[in-house]
Design a protein that fits this description.
Strand content: 5-15%
Structural class: alpha/beta
Shape: globular
Number of strands: 10
Order of helices and strands: HHHHHHHHHEHHEHEEHEHHEHEHEHEEH
Largest sheet: 6 strands, parallel
């Protein structure tokens, strides 16, 4: 019995969703052989081509699919992501706006907001990013008490202004300097963060009271989420307070360079699989014995370290800090005695950048909005340098770049 074109499309989608990409592509090609511009066939072939690193072919497939099925929000979203990788921000914006209009969901609206930020359309991006606020209040138990209270709009507050940390540790660190921008907005400014950040924020923001999420909410007269501050203050990146790069650490002729390393983020992060190093890439990094590695990694990703060190026999040049670094201030203290930090896109990158420590950040082919798509410089941290994947999931070429850069940087004993 001959399958209908609808049955072939269903098989292709099921295979794709089940991770059988060979079968999915075979069915997708069959669809396109029957109907040249079949949207499902083109969509799946386009996404798989992008995953292999064939951006031009994948983008062409997706654009053809969107013309064949212009009311498909998911297809517009994938077209937008492909356009972003090509730095075609006009095309990216067009597709994200179409997806938001068609779907009308918070996710689609968030995609548009983050796309605008990626493209450098800061004012509209920050404004549209506010779509997250009702969900934050609804789903975060420690924020329930904020519902109905006065939301800060940038006008003077006669009493206490409460700034509430949100998202991940890295976001709360990156946006913390904005608390200094609002010091005159109220007689008392309180920044509420998780306990792991309390001591660090107390040191970074001496004029701001630091409260923790484990404590009852302090009395306040107005509040704002910390990632709403750029919208409230109408900030563009040139207005962002950045830490100057720290002077190089004095080093003797016989001293090995001291380099911190972090290779994984929180496994709960939606993009952690993309942003964290593969085991073979980490092994290749730690095998570089021209530097003394200092492990800054915490959390589940640290669990692979003992086996990795046994395989490498790398005990002499890898300092594991098994006693633990404690909270973020403990990590900061270790960083103060390092020449460099090498890390993926995680809180360690933001902490090192905020401290002005030379920081090399390894990024996937689909980085977050804050890192942009091209270039090796970072608008948020003067001391940061970016190392980018060229092919999805391929970290070893990035390690090769880092190895060459380490050799160049530390070729002189006093570099």
């Amino acid at each position: 019995m001959t399958e209908s074109i609808g049955q072939i499309a269903q098989r292709s989608v099921q295979a794709f969703q089940g991770g059988d990409f060979i079968a999915a592509e075979r069915c997708a090609k069959q669809l396109c052989n029957i109907r040249r511009d079949h949207p499902v066939g083109l969509h799946i072939r386009g996404v798989l081509a992008l995953a292999r690193g064939d951006r031009d072919h994948g983008s062409r497939m997706l654009e053809r699919a969107s013309r064949a099925d212009p009311e498909n929000a998911a297809l517009h979203r994938d077209c937008a992501r492909a356009a972003a990788e090509r730095e075609d921000f006009d095309r990216m914006e067009l597709h994200y706006r179409a997806a938001a209009d068609i779907a009308g969901t918070e996710r689609a609206k968030m995609d548009l907001a983050l796309g605008l930020l990626l493209a450098g359309k800061w004012r509209e991006g920050w404004e549209r990013y506010e779509v997250r606020v009702p969900r934050e209040l609804r789903t975060r138990r420690h924020l329930h008490a904020l519902s109905g209270a006065r939301v800060w709009d940038g006008s003077p507050v006669s009493g206490t202004l409460l700034i509430v940390g949100e998202a991940g540790y890295g976001d709360m660190i990156q946006f913390a300097p904005l608390a200094r921008q609002i010091a005159n907005a109220a007689p008392r400014v309180v920044y509420r963060v998780p306990a792991a950040l309390q001591r660090l924020m107390t040191e970074l923001l001496p004029d701001t009271q630091i409260a923790t999420t484990g404590e009852p909410l302090p009395h306040f007269d107005a509040w704002a989420l910390v990632m709403s501050l750029p919208h409230i203050l109408k900030l563009d990146p040139p207005d962002w307070p950045t830490a100057p790069a720290r002077a190089p650490r004095p080093r003797g002729a016989q001293d090995q360079p001291r380099v911190g390393i972090a290779w994984g983020g929180s496994p709960l992060h939606a993009r952690d699989r993309l942003r964290s190093l593969s085991r073979d890439a980490l092994q290749a990094l730690l095998a570089i014995d021209a530097v003394e590695w200092h492990v800054l990694q915490q959390g589940p990703a640290r669990m692979m370290l003992p086996e990795l060190l046994r395989d490498l026999d790398a005990r002499d040049h890898v300092i594991t800090h098994d006693e633990g670094v404690g909270d973020f201030l403990g990590t900061a203290r270790i960083m103060e005695d390092l020449d460099l930090v090498v890390t993926v896109d995680t809180s360690v990158a933001h902490l090192a950048g905020t401290l002005g420590v030379p920081t090399w950040i390894m990024l996937s082919t689909a980085p977050e909005w804050r890192w942009g798509i091209r270039g090796d410089r970072c608008r948020w941290y003067e001391s940061a340098r970016l190392f980018r994947q060229r092919t999805p999931a391929q970290w070893l070429p990035v390690v090769d770049q880092v190895r060459d850069a380490l050799q160049l940087r530390f070729s002189s004993p006093t570099a």
